[in-house]
Amino acid sequence: MKKSRLLISLILVLFSLLGCQQNEQTEEKQGTPLLGEVTNQAEVTEDDFVYRLVSEKQQYQVSEPIKLYAELEYTGDQDEVEITHATSPFYFPITETTREYDIEYSMDMPLERTMLKKGESLRMDYESSGSFLDRDTEEYKTFMKQVMNGHFPAGQYVVDGNADFNLIGTEEKKYQIEAPVKFQVAGGIKKFSLSKSKGFGQVNGDIYAEIDDEESAELIQTAILNAVKQPGIVDTAASDYDMKVSYEDGGTQGYHLWIGEKGQKSTIMRVDDTHRIYTVSKEMTELLFEIVNK
After folding, report:
1. Which of 23, 60, 91, 265 makes a 20 to 30 Å CA pair with 127?
2. Among 1, 23, 19, 20, which Cα is nearest to 9's?
3. What is the distance between the alpha carbons of residues 188 and 153, in angstroms, rounded to a whole number?
4. Contact, 238 vs 203, CB < 8 A?
5. What are phi and psi of 271, to 5 degrees?
6. Which of 32, 59, 67 is nearest to 176 (CA)?
7. Is residue 262 within 8 Å of 213, Cβ to Cβ?
8. Torsions phi, psi of 289, nearest 5?
9. What one-character DSSP code corresponds to residue 267?
10. pTM to 2 decimal places
11. How deeply is 23 buried, as exposed, middle or buried, from its count of CB atoms within 10 A (0-12, 13-18, 19+)?
12. Backbone dihedral angles phi then psi of residue 26, each to the nearest 5 degrees
């Protein structure tokens, strides 16, 4: 009888220890959601600081630009406080969960100082990131090249964002406030249209040609996904054509388009980002050249 009681006591102690261990493993920082609760927006408060991480959409279409940003707001008693950080206090490491690919986020590490005024948010938009090594697989290299040029392939993405900074002054403290968001990239291009360009910032609605066959749409999608971003801020003459891409979910994206000669690459620019250009394949040039010269 004593042996039975002792055995039961040992089992109860074991279950109690396992329960404590599980609670420790699942414990999160205050305000940080568990992965099952992750959406395309997150907000975490720590002391007098509010960190927000936002993907403007829950689902994007393939070749559609990802619009992701972070904010940091001071809500304390002072009119303003000073913080120090690297080039930015915001980090955007991303994981594509179906492939289990990690998209690293790195930046320069100078010591920068920023004054945060009470009630005014410091904001930063996500910039393309990632890297690869010579020994990585060709599939991984292709994926990462697309992401590094701002074109996310179809997949499920989780952004484990964080704000990393130091509060300085009378109350010095190190902060690393974390919050995850997720978004999906799906579908693809349904059709696209061309028109004569009338200037930067918008697509001319007077359509020159509209193409909706599956083969052409797939070629355009592949070309945009593999478009290579050119360095620096662009100062160029207006384009000859505009291109409006329509996605399967009803969304659209406009581009300014410089069509090369046969055998040459062409150049595109998003109408909502007129400071960057991308070069696209010779195959896309040939398709567009045939369309505009019919």
Report:
1. 265
2. 1
3. 10
4. no
5. -70, -20
6. 32
7. no
8. -60, -45
9. E
10. 0.69
11. exposed
12. -95, -5
**Gyration radius (Cα) of the chain, Å:** 25
Q: For residue 246, how many other CB atoms are within 10 A of its CB?
A: 18
Question: Looking up tokens 């907000």, which residue turns up?
Answer: 43
Residues 6 or more apart in contact with residue 6 via CB below 8 angstroms: none
Residue 287 per-residue DSSP state: H
Residue 42 structure tokens: 């997150």
Q: What is the pLDDT along the chain (294 residues), one digit of tens a residue?
A: 444 444 444 444 444 444 444 444 434 444 444 444 679 999 999 999 999 999 999 999 887 889 999 999 999 999 999 999 999 999 999 999 989 999 999 888 899 999 999 999 999 999 989 999 999 999 999 999 999 988 898 899 999 999 999 999 878 899 999 999 999 998 788 899 999 999 999 999 999 889 998 888 888 888 888 888 888 777 788 898 999 999 887 878 899 999 888 888 889 998 988 888 998 888 888 888 888 776
Looking up tokens 């406009």, which residue turns up? 254
In a 13 Å sphere around the CA of 107, the CA atoms on its Cβ side amount to 17
Burial of 167 (0-12, 13-18, 19+ CB in 10 A): buried
With the CA atoms of 132, 137, 138 and 140 taken in that order, what torsion angle do they form, in degrees rounded to the nearest 10? -50
Can you tell me which residue has the tokens 């568990």?
34
**What residues does 178 pair with on adjacent strands?**
162
